[in-house]
């Protein structure tokens, strides 16, 4: 219990001194996580839309498969990407193993099923009506598509934030594809793993606490910038 | 006039454009760009003990300042480092498992073993020392006693250099298959020591990690100084043919620097509580 308290004090101390490693890890985490969340969201939105709009045979199987993908361990996703981008692998020539780019790729694959499943859930009930109504009112297909997203509002935002939460807290992909290289691919979570492996529990807790603070600030900004929440 | 829906869509379209721009910006400013970054950096695969001790964080920035060559160290453990290198994912390895290193070189994956530094292992255990290993006359006898008594022993259980040493010591002690009293933790050294502490078990640890945690542990060093507990670290340059587009020249310069007077002095300067954590090969310079 004592190291929890020591952790909080350590966290405050690090903020006060603007510890260079800490700032670096925060920057890397934010850059990588925001990138992967945005990319995955852009891929997921049209996919979820199509899934909500179309009725086809085997749709339930697809949905079941999607939700199963949510249970894949991060390490397994990482190893899959590793097998593609390692030096002597098909995409090895790109030289992206142990760089932030590899982490982003892994994280996008990680949360894509999650985002499609959640956004689809938010769209399912109303999508068809909203889309057709928008077309009737003269909107282009693209604008009508966007309208259905906007109408689902809070549900889509929550889905995106869930995706962000998933990537900001994961270790497997960051560690295996990034390599935990100080100042380059050392994210907050891999830094926490390193501190823990060194037995520095207080420092590990401190980093975790700081990560949560940053995410809280981010969430507050988004919540305040968005529409009035009638549905979360 | 359907004003509200259209303006709502326009506003959201603008937000979408903003988000797209942000995304492109974020991904684009992934500095340095993967290609140039990859080509000029040296990828060093190493052990958790060198990384966890902080030695590399101490040495590598100095090397970069003096030569301009960037070294990215990936700490994955000895076994993983050698396998990684064989797949062509590293330019250089720094590990501590002489047998595995020799096999690696024999296979042609590396040029030669270049001894760099050493420290030692320590057999730690509870103060009560139930198997009476302290001052029993050597490491092998100590391991024999632990096995005979079936006293709990926490093993690394991963293919780390430390684990390799444990296995060879059990073999030398004539213990072919440790029983249920040997707990394979599958964790890093600090995790294993914490576990051993909780369970009042024996463990084999490198001195650096033990020193770092000593204040927090009840475990005591019971057997040390034996030549069987020597822990030598070596560098091996990976065959450049295994790794297209790697930085072999940079790796070679790193090896030269680390084994030079300058490098050895820097290694010797790295201390905890006044003690050298790693002794450079050939002794501390000066």
Quickly describe the structure.
The complex is a heterodimer of chains A (232) and B (286). Chain A is mainly alpha-helical and 232 residues long. Chain A has 11 helices and no strands.
Walkthrough of the structure:
- The complex is a heterodimer of chains A (232) and B (286).
- Chain A has helices at residues 2-17, 20-53, 59-69, 74-85, 100-123, 127-136, 141-152, 154-169, 172-178, 188-197, 201-225.
- Chain A is an all-alpha fold and 232 residues long.
- Chain A starts with a helix and ends in a 7-residue tail after the last helix.
- By secondary structure, chain B is α/β, with parallel strands linked by helices.
- In chain B, 46% of the residues lie in helices and 21% in strands.
- Chain B has helices at residues 3-28, 34-40, 48-53, 55-67, 78-86, 98-106, 139-149, 161-172, 189-199, 207-213, 248-259, 261-269, and strands spanning 42-46, 71-75, 92-95, 110-125, 153-155, 182-184, 202-206, 220-223, 230-238, 271-272, 275-276, 279-280.
- Chain A binds chain B through residues 31, 34-35, 38-39, 42, 86-88, 92-101, 104, 134, 137-139, 143, 146-147, 149-150, 179-182, 184, 194, 196-199, and chain B through 2, 5-6, 8-9, 12-13, 16, 19-20, 22-23, 26-27, 29-30, 34-35, 37-39, 43, 48, 51-52, 57, 72-76, 87-89, 187-191, 193-194, 209, 212-213, 216, 242-246.
């Amino acid at each position: 219990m004592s190291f929890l308290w020591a952790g909080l004090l350590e966290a405050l101390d690090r903020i006060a001194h603007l510890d260079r490693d800490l700032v670096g890890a925060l920057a890397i985490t934010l850059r990588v996580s925001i990138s992967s969340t945005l990319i995955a969201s852009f891929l997921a939105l049209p996919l979820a839309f199509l899934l909500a709009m179309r009725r086809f045979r085997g749709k339930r199987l697809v949905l079941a498969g999607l939700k199963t993908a949510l249970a894949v361990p991060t390490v397994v996703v990482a190893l899959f990407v590793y097998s593609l981008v390692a030096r002597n692998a098909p995409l090895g020539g790109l030289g992206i193993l142990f760089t932030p780019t590899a982490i982003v790729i892994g994280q996008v694959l990680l949360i894509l099923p999650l985002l499609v499943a959640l956004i689809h859930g938010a769209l399912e009930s109303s999508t068809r009506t909203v889309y057709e109504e928008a077309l009737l009112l003269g909107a282009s297909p693209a604008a009508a598509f966007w309208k259905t997203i906007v109408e689902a509002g809070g549900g889509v935002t929550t889905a995106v934030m869930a995706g962000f939460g998933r990537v900001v807290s994961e270790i497997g992909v960051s560690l295996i594809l990034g390599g935990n290289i100080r100042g380059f691919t050392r994210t907050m979570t891999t830094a926490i793993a390193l501190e823990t492996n060194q037995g520095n529990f207080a420092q590990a807790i401190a980093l975790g606490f700081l990560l949560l603070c940053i995410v809280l600030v981010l969430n507050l900004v988004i919540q305040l910038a968005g529409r009035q929440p009638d549905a979360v | 006039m359907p004003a509200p829906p259209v303006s709502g869509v326009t506003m959201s379209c603008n937000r979408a454009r903003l988000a797209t721009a942000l995304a492109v910006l974020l991904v684009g400013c992934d500095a340095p760009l993967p290609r140039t970054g990859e080509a000029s950096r040296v990828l060093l695969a190493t052990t958790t003990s060198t990384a966890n001790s902080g030695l590399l964080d101490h040495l590598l920035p100095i090397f970069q300042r003096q030569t301009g060559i960037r070294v990215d160290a990936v700490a994955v453990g000895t076994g993983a480092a050698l396998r990684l290198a064989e797949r062509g994912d590293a330019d250089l390895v720094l590990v501590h498992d002489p047998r595995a290193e020799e096999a690696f070189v024999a296979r042609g994956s590396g040029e030669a073993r270049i001894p760099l530094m050493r420290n030692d292992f320590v057999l730690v255990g509870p103060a009560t020392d139930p198997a009476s290993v302290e001052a029993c006359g050597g490491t092998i006898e100590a391991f024999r006693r632990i096995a005979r008594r079936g006293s709990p022993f926490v093993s690394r259980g991963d293919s780390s250099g430390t684990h390799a040493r444990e296995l060879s010591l059990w073999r030398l002690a004539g213990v072919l298959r440790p029983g249920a009293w040997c707990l394979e933790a599958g964790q890093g050294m600090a995790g294993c020591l914490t576990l051993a502490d909780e369970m009042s078990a024996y463990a084999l640890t490198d001195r650096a990690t033990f020193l770092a945690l000593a204040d927090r542990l009840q475990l005591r060093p019971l057997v040390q100084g034996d030549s069987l507990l020597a822990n030598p670290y070596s560098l091996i340059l990976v065959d450049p043919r295994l790794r297209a587009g790697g930085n072999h020249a940079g790796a070679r310069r790193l090896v030269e620097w680390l084994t030079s007077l300058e490098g050895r002095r820097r290694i010797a300067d790295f201390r905890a509580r006044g003690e050298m954590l790693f002794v450079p090969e050939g002794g501390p310079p000066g």
